[in-house]
């Protein structure tokens, strides 16, 4: 898959090719007949170019993945990649290694920070009330300090030396990150880039060595009774995929570690700006060029979406239903489901998108189920849920009807809305949904512009 970014291509309408009369006209010596012949030829060329561009546009399908941060947009893009351009995923595979490391170090940091906070509460009869347990955790912390100390450097190298606002030491993805982290580093003519790449490789090697030396301590921390206790109680809150990586720490810390497809899908890496991914897709023997626009979902990122709206064939909007008990990182007063509903309403009402096909994926259903099974009460966070039964069917139906209501209210164009419940890490189920969604989008595209 060609992974290119970011700047908006002007729609190629062919305007501007035609010579104006005031531009170079026929030479003084040319006869009127010759001039007419040349002018006719130019007109014919322009007409052909228009027709060629019109045909080319029929083969272009532009799909935007929208939704709040951490809703699963980049994960869906990876699933598309797995489905339609899996060889490109193989090429990128090793460049995910340092990002998996970064996810693990972040999880370890959060565990210690949450334990420290719990210690200050002095709650009797809980694991942290025991001096022995505190001592065990303190010595694990000392042994893991060398690994924790590498987080900021690793994040900065992965992000090409740029940090996100707020000074958080967290990796994010921008154009060209693969070449920064690829083991066989792309030698470019750009000396600065080559230097950055070489630095990123050195940091990755150092992190790999430190992780191999501390792997048993990471595992001991994850399995520690205090960590088990506070995780079960949801008082240690980690990124959705952190537990997966910590469970697989022995495999990941091996020297020849190569990320599996599952690992790549689990990675959490923020998107900054708009990333363009293109691949071919065929239907009924015809090949179409798909471009997916994977955007950064945090509030500060949303204005960057707008220039891409006017020629979008379809919007796939992702709303994670498991987020009912979470608040926006960028605005801790706003519940994440409320934010998703508002954002979805704004997308439905946007006049620039009035011709776009609308798909809504209610995502992270696996985590929703886990939370409900663990007894988390929806009404504690969404008061309007009231006394309804706190089970999976009722909760998913409740949220689904809210999204449908927003669509009915906001979509003046009265478009059909395609809705699916998804658990984006389930490869088989997601691939079949991608097939359905892809086909529906192509059918709508063909209905709008005709067969290519
Ligand atoms: N368990 C589970 N995890 C998911 C699901 N969908 C995505 N994730 C995980 O959630 C995290 C966030 O997913 P991303 O795809 O990076 O989110 P995003 O919408 O691209 O976020 P931004 O780039 O910040 O806008 C990743 O660690 C994914 O592996 C899901 O359905 N279930
Ligand atoms: Mg993303």
UniProtKB/TrEMBL annotation:
Compositional bias per record (Basic and acidic residues), positions renumbered to this chain: 31-57
Gene Ontology cellular component list: cytoplasm; heterotrimeric G-protein complex
InterPro entries recorded: Gprotein_alpha_su, GproteinA_insert, P-loop_NTPase
Binding site for GTP: 240-241, 265-271, 363-366
Xref: SUPFAM superfamilies: P-loop containing nucleoside triphosphate hydrolases (SSF52540), Transducin (alpha subunit), insertion domain (SSF47895)
Keyword Metal-binding: yes
This protein's record includes keyword Zinc-finger: no
GO biological process, one term: adenylate cyclase-modulating G protein-coupled receptor signaling pathway
Cross-referenced Gene3D superfamilies: P-loop containing nucleotide triphosphate hydrolases
GO MF annotations, alphabetized: G protein-coupled receptor binding; G-protein beta/gamma-subunit complex binding; GTP binding; GTPase activity; metal ion binding
Full protein name: G-alpha-domain-containing protein
CDD domains: G-alpha
Biased composition (Polar residues): 1-14
């Amino acid at each position: 898959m060609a992974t290119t970014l970011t700047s908006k291509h002007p729609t190629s309408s062919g305007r501007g090719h035609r010579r104006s009369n005031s531009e170079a006209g026929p030479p003084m010596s040319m006869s009127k007949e010759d001039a007419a012949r040349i002018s006719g030829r130019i007109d014919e060329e322009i007409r052909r170019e228009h027709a060629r561009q019109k045909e080319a546009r029929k083969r272009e399908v532009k799909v935007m993945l929208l939704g709040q941060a951490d809703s699963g947009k980049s994960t869906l893009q990876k699933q598309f990649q797995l489905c339609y351009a899996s060889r490109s995923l193989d090429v990128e595979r090793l460049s995910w290694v340092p990002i998996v490391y970064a996810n693990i170090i972040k999880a370890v940091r959060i565990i210690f920070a949450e334990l420290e906070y719990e210690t200050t509460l002095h709650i009797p009869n809980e694991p942290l009330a025991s001096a022995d347990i505190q001592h065990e955790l303190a010595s694990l912390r000392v042994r893991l300090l060398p690994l924790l100390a590498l987080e900021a450097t690793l994040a900065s190298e992965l992000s090409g030396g740029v940090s996100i606002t707020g000074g958080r030491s967290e990796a994010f993805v921008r154009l060209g990150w693969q070449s920064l982290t690829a083991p066989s580093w792309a030698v470019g003519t750009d000396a600065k880039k080559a230097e950055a790449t070489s630095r990123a490789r050195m940091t990755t090697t150092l992190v790999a060595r430190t992780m191999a030396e501390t792997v048993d301590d990471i595992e001991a921390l994850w399995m520690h009774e205090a960590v088990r206790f506070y995780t079960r109680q949801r008082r240690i809150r980690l990124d959705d995929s952190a537990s997966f990586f910590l469970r697989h720490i022995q495999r990941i810390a091996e020297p020849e570690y190569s990320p599996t497809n599952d690992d790549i899908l689990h990675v959490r890496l923020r998107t900054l700006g708009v990333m363009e991914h293109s691949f071919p897709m065929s239907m009924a023997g015809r090949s179409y060029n798909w471009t997916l626009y994977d955007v950064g979902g945090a509030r500060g990122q949303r204005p960057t979406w707008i220039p891409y709206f006017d020629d979008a064939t379809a919007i796939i909007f992702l709303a994670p239903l498991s987020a009912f008990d979470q608040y926006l990182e960028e605005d801790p007063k706003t519940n994440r489901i409320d934010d998703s509903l508002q954002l979805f309403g704004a997308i439905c009402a946007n006049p620039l998108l009035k011709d776009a096909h609308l798909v809504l994926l209610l995502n992270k259903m696996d985590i929703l189920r886990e939370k409900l099974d663990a007894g988390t009460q929806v009404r504690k966070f969404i008061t309007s849920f009231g006394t309804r039964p706190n089970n999976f069917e009722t909760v998913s139906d409740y949220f689904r009807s809210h999204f449908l209501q927003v669509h009915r209210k906001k979509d003046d164009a009265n478009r059909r809305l395609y809705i699916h419940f998804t658990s984006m890490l389930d490869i088989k189920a997601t691939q079949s949904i991608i097939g359905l969604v892809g086909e529906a989008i192509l059918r709508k595209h063909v209905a709008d512009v005709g067969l290519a």
